Amino acid sequence: MSWGSSLTEEEKKWQQNFERKLNEVKDIKSYSTSFLDPRQLELAEEVLKKKGELSYTVYGGCPDAERNAVQVFPAQHKGTLPPVTAVLVEWADTRAKIGHRDLLGAVLALGLRRDQIGDIIMLQEGGAALMVMQSKADFICVNLFQAGNLTVKCSIVDPEQLSLAEDNARVIKGTVASLRVDSLLSLGFGLSRSRVVRMIKGGLVIVNWHPVDSPSLQLKEGDHVTLRGRGRLQLCSVEGETRKGRIRLQLKKYS
């Protein structure tokens, strides 16, 4: 999908603020962002590519992290990773499940901002890992006792020591009349097309981390579609047509 170079006013302000912070790097030697979503990372790298005197590293604590922090430093200095660590969240009943939204809601209820929390990974052996800025890890461990209706305990761990290979997604196979964004949302979330259209018009849908307002936007393999408050879809593969001309496809749904 080609988005061109046009930026929204909000994106322009974000880049301008980021560039102002970069101007301080010479004085403070390095600068670390909080967690950036993929669009913010894209905006940050657009600015950094024009700054030949600066280098940077990107790290989210886990492979293929969706949310990453950026560490910026003078190009002649040795680089370090952003100060990201993991909080391991465990609960006694391994048969019980705590969802992504339950954990995120519990952490935000402590008074933290969304950009202080990175990816939330459900672990193969049970429990979950919260990728967080190191400055907030102790605070979370001391104050987070419950998520959903379960009592939890927290500890700080090195992200590299966690088993993060499990793909925390559900595969959905089905057919749609077209690759319009409203069609895929209707299939992926089990909603009527009319309701999906209202959600799109209401600003609740993001495609590849860009807000969209057109239900007829055409998608392609690899695209990500987020429905605020419900989760994210990835269009994994388009697998031909049925005899009636409908398109067979496979989605991954991340809740």
Written overview of the protein:
β10 and β11 (210-211) form a beta hairpin. The chain folds into three domains: 9-74, Ribosomal Protein S8, Chain: A, domain 1; 84-161, Alpha-Beta Plaits (2-Layer Sandwich), CATH 3.30.70.330; 170-254, Roll (Structural Genomics Hypothetical 15.5 Kd Protein In mrcA-pckA Intergenic Region, Chain A). A six-stranded antiparallel β-sheet has the order 9-14-13-12-10-11. It has a five-stranded antiparallel β-sheet with strand order 5-6-4-8-7. The chain has a three-stranded antiparallel β-sheet with strand order 1-3-2. The chain has helices at residues 9-22, 25-28, 38-48, 100-108, 134-143, 181-189, 193-201, and strands at 31-32, 54-59, 69-74, 84-91, 117-122, 128-133, 146-147, 150-157, 170-176, 205-207, 210-211, 224-227, 231-241, 247-254. By secondary structure, it is α+β, with helices and mostly antiparallel strands. It starts with 8 loop residues before the first helix and ends with a strand. The chain is globular and about 65 Å long.
